[in-house]
Amino acid sequence: MSKLCRYFPVEMWCFILLTLLTGVLSSIRKGPSNYVKKVGDTVQLICKTDTNSCEGIDWTKMEGSQSGTAFYRSAYGQLNPKKFANYVVSSDARDGCIVTISNLSLTDSGVFTCSEERNQIEEKKNAVLLVIEASPCSPRVLDAEIAKGDSVSISCSVNLHSDYIKPSSVQLVWLNSNFSLRSIASNESASSNLTLPYSSKAEQNETLRFRCSLSLSVNQDGTLYDQSSPNIEICSFPTRTVLYPVTEIKFNENREQTGFAKGETVLCKAEGHPPPAYEWKDKAGNVVSNEGSYTITEKSSPGDVFECTAKNSVKGVPYSTSKSLIVVTEFLETKALEKELSSASSPVTPTGLLVAIVGLLLYEI
Prior knowledge:
Low-confidence stretches: 20-24, 220-228, 336-342, 344-365
Number of strands: 26
Strand content: 35-45%
Largest sheet: 8 strands, mixed
Structural class: mainly beta
Radius of gyration: 37 Å
Oligomer: single chain
Order of helices and strands: HEEEEEEEEEEEEEEEEEEEEEEEEEEHH
Number of helices: 3
C-alpha cells in the first residue's frame, strides 16, 4: 500500500494505520463505477475528490497481463494521445476528476484506476469497464401469434474483449414477464463470443415478454464477485399472450348446475385467448342474446331450453363449445330438487331406513 511500510518494524500494523490515515490524508472520496457499455457508446468515469479537480490525480488502464498503462498524470497532463485519442480528462467543480471516453470500441475494456499519492501514502480506486458488441435477437421478429404448444426458440449473442475481464464474470440471461430467470449462459472459456439460446413450448394462459440482459459480476480488481453489478439489455421482444381455444363452459362459475328459474341471470363463461364471443339461442334456434350473460324472461316456461355457445379462433382455425340450461318452475323448487336429488344419491343408512318404514306405516293407517 505504501513505500513507508517497508521500513516499519511491524508491517501488518503499518498497513492498518495507513488504511485509517488514508481517509484523512487522501482527497479521493469515491472511485469510478463499473460499467457495461455497447460499441459506439460514451462513458464517464468519475473520481470524486475533495478538491473537485484533477489536482494530484493519476489515471491508468490495465488490460491483459499488463501492469497498467498511464494515460493521465496530474504533473504532465494527458499521455500517449495516439493510443488514447478518444480519452478526455477534465476537472469538474462538482464531481472532481472525470475521464470521458467516446465512441467506445471492444479494446476499451479494462480496469481503470484513479490514484493519488500524498506523503508516500497511495490511494487507489478501481473500476471495470466492459465494452460489448451486441447482435440483434434471433429471430429479429417474434411471431405475432403464438399458440399453446408452439415451439419458441430465440437467441442473443455478444462479442467482447476479455483479455482482462474474467470470462466467468460475464453472464447472459433471458428473463420472462416477471423478470424471473429463464436461461443463463456464462463464458467459461477465453472466447470473445457469448451466445445464449432459449427454447420452450408455449403454455396456456402464459404471457411471453422475453428480454436478454448481460451482467458483469466483478470485484474492483476484476476477480469474480458474488453479486451482479452492472447489467445492460442486449435485445428484447414485444409482449405476446399465448393463444388457445375456448375451454369448457360454466354457468355462474358452477360446472354442474344447469337448471335455472325465470328471472334468473345466468353468466356463461369460458376461458380462451383471444377472449371468446358468446351467443345464446332458444330451443327453436333463434338468437336471443350476444352477451356473456342472459336473463330468463317471464315468458319462459318450465322445460324451455337455452343454449350458450362460446367461440374464438386461433391462427385462423375456429373453435367453439356449447352448453344448455333448462328452465324450472321456481328458484326455490330448483334448490329443493337439487337437494332431493342429492339425498336420493346418498347411501341408505339404518336411521333413514327406519324413518322411511315408520312413514310408510303411518301412511297406511
